Structures are given as C-alpha cells and as structure tokens.
Amino acid sequence: MATTGREKLNKLYTHLAPGTPLTSEDLAxxxxxxxxAVHYVRAGWLERMARGVYCRPNDPPALHxxxxxxxxxxxxxHVGGKSALDWQGIRQYVAQRPVLHLYGWKAGRLxxxxxxxFPADYHRKRLFEERPEALxxxxxxxxxxxxxxxxxxxxxxxxxxxxxxxxxxxxxxxELVESSYNLRAAVLGELLKRCGSxxxxxxxLQLGRELSLRWFDKLDPSQLPKGSNRxxxxxxxxxLLVLKP
Length: 245
Hints:
Shape: elongated
Order of helices and strands: HEHHEEHEHEHEEEHHHHHEE
Number of helices: 11
C-alpha cells in the first residue's frame, strides 16, 4: 500500500472513538474515496454494513454513536418516552433487551443495519409547539459532547403518556408516573402549556392528582390546555379511558 494510503488507514483507526459507525461522507472527510473504501472492504480493513455505511472490523457499532449518526438524517430525532426515562433512572424493572424508543419530526423508517443490532422503534411525533432544530428540553445525554439527544424526564413522561391507549399500557404508565416525584414542576408546566394533545395534558394532571405527587401541587391547571368541558374518551385494549377536564 502507498504511504498516503497507510496514513489514511492509520487516521481511520486512531482518530475515531471505538464503536463509531461511518458514512461515505465521513470517509471522504478522512480523505478516503469511494474507490479506496471498496479496496479497504475487500482487504478486510473496513466492513460494509449497508450502502454507504461502514464500521471497522472487530469494532461493531455501539448504540450511542449509532443514534448520533441517525440524528444526521432524521430531523428532530431523539431518545424519548420510556427509553429516556429509563436512561435517566426512572424505571419499574430492568428489561434484558429493552426496545429503544426514538421520536422524530417526520415519518421515516429506521435502517436495518441499526435495528438488527439494537431493537428499536421510531415514531413521528409533534407533541409540542416547537421547531425540530430547537426541541424543548432535549439535550445530549448527561450533557456529554457527542452524546445522543435525549428528552428531559419531564418531556419523556409526557411522550410516554401520549402513547397510552396506543402502544403504552396505562398501568405501566401509572407506575412510572408514581416514580416521577422528583420532576421539576416549572419544566413540566412549560411543556404542558405548549402540548397539543388534550389527552396527554389531562392524563398527566389526573395521575398527578391521584398519586399526590409534589409537582402536581405546583401546577395551575387553569392555565393549561385541557380542551373543552366535555370528558375525553378513548378506547384501548385495557378498555375505555375517560379523562375529565
């Protein structure tokens, strides 16, 4: 191999964190052309996972850098709902291989190279009045540089409640709400005011009231978008869900 080729290969192996998947654009930034990438794959110095997506041999992609890569192609993508709660220590039990819940701004489908390695689902969700480039209370996990974006616990709880009656059992949601006694009332109130789902707002208030949680006492329900004076009624596998205003 020519000296320049060795230099590029050395950069590929030494300048990237372990478990980092690469795209063709990433390789080009390292000076590795499409033809040279093909050569590296054939020589066993690079592994092709899908069209335009690679990893280094014996260095399978890790979850966090893989989610970060997806964020480049899925507008507004972040870890949310039950997964975000779990990542931040709010859980009922530890699943052996939990499904990762990802949310984004537009409809889409997770690539197979990702779902084959990490059980995950993706849902388009526009629960709040916000812009995809400035999501409310979504930050890098543990504020670490280069970490995947994750909903704050207050946002994650509302994302979870929005799924009740669809993909989320009410009883499990209730148990998770009961564990959320340390939520910040100011953050939760801000999110509730900008929430476009009457069901989510009412369910949050109802469970907070029933469970006598501290953050509920600090909210002003009269200032929140609860809809009309009529009950909200929905059907699920658990039966009727009736939420009063």
